[in-house]
Amino acid sequence: MADKSRIDGIFYNPHDGVTWEKRVTKVVQDYPDAIELNLNRAYIRNGEIQSLTQIMKGLTKLEKMNLSTNFLGNEGIELLCNWIQYLPSLQTLNLASNGFGIQGMQYLSEIIKTHTRLERLILATNSIQVESIRCLSEALKINDHLVYLDLSFNQLDYASFQILSENISMHQSLRHLVLTQTFLMDSSCLHLARMLRTNTTLISLDCERNGITSVGFLYICDALCINHSLQEWKMIENLIDESSVECLAILLDNNTSLKTFNCTVDAMGDEGFQALSRTIQQNTTLSQLSFHTENYYIQQNIQSISNLIKYNTTLCQLDLRSNLLPEEDLILLYTSLEINLSLHLFHFGSASDPKYRELDEKVLRTLEINSYPIRFPIEWENKKVARIRHLQIVWNPKQHHFFPDSFQQQIWTLLCCRKRNTITVPLLSLPSELWMHHIIPWLGQLSLF
Question: What pTM, to 2 d.p., does this model score?
């Protein structure tokens, strides 16, 4: 049965004799209750947007509209805004790559001021500059419901970031701000830092692919030591060096909210890597960490990585790709991978190197077998029960490297699953010393029998 809630493309063939207006009218008749309209790359031009908006005024239930990569321009945006007035349920509007500038932003700013449901606004890859940002900022002073704003791939300057940051600092609803490749430099980071010191609602900040050096990185890190609301910070492909790693270590020691951090470091020495590793071992908030360097050889710090994996209890995803790791040293990580109870994804090496892809898959298999949901062992057993097969294998120190605490936790998971689901999994064969000195004394403290 066709999904009548989504209009996914209106295909126009100038050679079949069917006009654009007739094709649009047919779609509206077929999907009167559509809540999502996707016209990405529909090649809508100024002359067509007028007929499109007039015909589609009947789609009053639309909640999501994607008009990215068309040819709307400033005139098309004006006609579109006239239509949006008839869409009271609209929540998401994607106008990326439509070539509009200050005039188009003036029309949009009126919609931002008056529309009471619009929450997500994507304006990437247009001709937005300082005057457009001024219009947007004035609208944000009145708007109290916008949650997501994407300004990626627009050429913003120092004044643009100053105006934008001043208004966002006091905005009470904005939670996601995307500034990928917006010419964000160190001087503009000062304004972002001031905004982060006072804003209490922003939870995600994307600063990827800009010209930020260690100076700008320090400004933001210093602000985040005070800010306790931001949860995600993306900094891939900037101009950061080893001195920034020490700033990051200080940040992670003081910040209590950051859960996801992505970063690229141009050059990193042993001291910076070891300082970061020590900090992450004790960190209790990070769940996703992507840390890429340019061909950094981490063999000399393999023990630091091992300790990071062994002692951190919150990381679910760890991405160290672009860091070189010899194949023979991978075995040194297995002990920590088998002990770690939270990590589900671990990438390393070069994604384009077949050797590393093969090793990556091997590591993922290790994680699939040996990661156990100890905090919620009963609630998750239906999804995780396949991992218990690891306990059926004859115990071998070279394969498992179990520490007593880790092994006890895995036995606990097995017993919880057996108790609830009556799973007939035989207990594995283990050395008598392990049973006598670790398992039996520990089981004696539980009220399982």
Answer: 0.78
